[in-house]
Amino acid sequence: MEHMDAVVIGMGPGGETVASRLLAAGRRVAVAERELIGGECAYWACIPTKTLLRPPEARAGADGTAGLSRPALDWPALRAYRDQMIRHLDDSAQVKGYQEQGALVLKGQGRVTGRDPWRVEVGGTEVSTDHVVVATGSAALRPPVRGLDDLDPATVWTNREATTLTEIPRRALVIGGSAVGVELGQFLARMGTNVTVVQRGPRLLDREEPRLCALVTDQFARDGITVHTDTEVTAVEREGAEVVASLSDGTTVRTDVVVLAAGRRPRADGLGLEEAGVELDRTGLVVDEHCRAAPGLWGIGDATGQALFTHVAKYQGRLAADNILGGDRTADYTAVPRVVFADPEIAAVGLTESQARERGIDTATAEADLTKTLARPWTYGTDPRGTLGLVADRERGVLVGAWAFAPLASEWIHTAALAIRARLPLSVLSDSIIQFPTFGEAYLIALENLDL
Ligand SMILES: Cc1cc2nc3c(=O)[nH]c(=O)nc-3n(C[C@H](O)[C@H](O)[C@H](O)COP(=O)(O)OP(=O)(O)OC[C@H]3O[C@@H](n4cnc5c(N)ncnc54)[C@H](O)[C@@H]3O)c2cc1C
Ligand SMILES: NC(=O)c1ccc[n+]([C@@H]2O[C@H](COP(=O)([O-])OP(=O)(O)OC[C@H]3O[C@@H](n4cnc5c(N)ncnc54)[C@H](O)[C@@H]3O)[C@@H](O)[C@H]2O)c1
């Protein structure tokens, strides 16, 4: 049996980060992937959604730009570019790339078969290893809706069917109104689909600042999207060519497809971990602040249920690799950016006001309407919108949270992320010189509005 320094199970962005770092350090690494190297992110999540959202965003941008006429949407051309961006669901170049870096690439379902030393089996090949990294990701949750399992699979879309769609449906019912529901809902609506979002929570993006959620709700109304909050789909049934959905608020929605956007389930079961004495819970593989689940066993990315983002999976991947290489790094999740790539972009980091108060923080908040005070929104478009909110700790004089609803917020939210992470004094932040004219100048305005 061949002995490795490390075996990485699951080659999404998390697994790829660990494997690349260990290979670069000259370690003997085996990688196991049962589908495609690149994971959910590259083929059915981040990359296709951002590719699909861009043309409708650019088109809306043209509508609000002086001296520019509205470009036409070209679905076959967008579909072809989406297919190129998801590599036509072919990872042969990635397999070759890892082999050339010296990895043993095992295509198949990985499973832990023993401990002391760790042993992993993939498609009949078994190797022993000093370290195992579990990076197996997550899968779309199926909400408990009566009749859902009886529908033709072609009419029930998870993120996989939605991101690889070949035709734009006439009507879509989206179950769930957070990141997946908002991105897919806006994309479909702007491509001409009649979209209804059914959200169990009290607001769209219900874990975010209520003011931010209100701005998103207003945007959805502008996009012609119908939203039912505090509502669930109780049953679905096929009636001729259409699907009829019954909602808990007593209404009925007729649709062509049902899109599942009701959350994700970490994929840490079925890997032989429990049999090897490793703890799993409802949120996935339980890891400590070093990303360690047991001596020589590491967990990263969605499989740990920590914060389901690619940038977190990659951060944990860097951290786990450095620890495998002898380091002693601990994870800090205080300033993880959370961006929903709708138009305008929705960005947040750190705590909301109520989370800060629950932690006993002496909380000050402020909001800035970018269109009232800044030049950049007006040089950018004729009907600009943009808001920045801040949440500060009065006693410590630092930022603890921020949110923004504005163009390119995904880029400039990082000022707040860094300030929160570095516990940068508010006095330094408000004394900084920010490029004119940018959206980032909003920080100076909002800081002035903080009642400290
Ligand atoms: C629609 C959508 C859009 C998103 N957009 C963004 C975004 O814009 N930005 C962002 O940061 N996050 C986004 N996310 C979240 C992001 O996709 C995940 O957080 C990220 O993919 C997690 O990476 P990972 O490496 O943990 O797992 P994954 O990307 O899920 O990869 C896990 C890999 O493990 C493999 N695997 C599983 N079990 C086994 C096994 N037993 N043996 C071998 N291989 C196995 C799988 O086949 C898969 O390739 C989005 C999610 C969705 C659903
Ligand atoms: N841009 C990004 O970074 C990005 C984009 C998409 C997804 N993601 C990540 O992927 C993960 C999954 O996203 P998601 O939006 O599917 O899940 P989520 O868990 O973030 O939100 C699910 C939403 O669905 C609602 N819901 C749950 N069950 C329901 C039901 N039966 N009926 C109606 N509503 C129901 C909840 O109230 C909640 O608002 C998230 O952690 C997210 O961060 C990130």
Automatic annotation (TrEMBL):
GO molecular function, one term: dihydrolipoyl dehydrogenase (NADH) activity
Cofactor: FAD
Residue sites binding FAD per the record: K50, G110, T136, G137, S138, D302
Textual note on the cofactor: Binds 1 FAD per subunit.
FAD/NAD(P)-binding domain mapped to chain residues: 4-317
Keyword Cell inner membrane: no
Cysteine-cysteine disulfides: C41-C46
Keywords annotated in UniProt: FAD, Flavoprotein, NAD, Nucleotide-binding, Oxidoreductase
Domain of life: Bacteria
Metal-binding listed as a keyword: no
SUPFAM superfamilies, A to Z: FAD/NAD(P)-binding domain, FAD/NAD-linked reductases, dimerisation (C-terminal) domain
Stretches assigned to the Pyridine nucleotide-disulphide oxidoreductase dimerisation domain: 336-443
Enzyme Commission numbers on file: 1.8.1.4
Record-listed NAD(+) binding positions: G176, G177, S178, A179, V180, G181, V182, E183, G263
Family the UniProt entry places it in: Belongs to the class-I pyridine nucleotide-disulfide oxidoreductase family.
Name used for this protein in its record: Dihydrolipoamide dehydrogenase
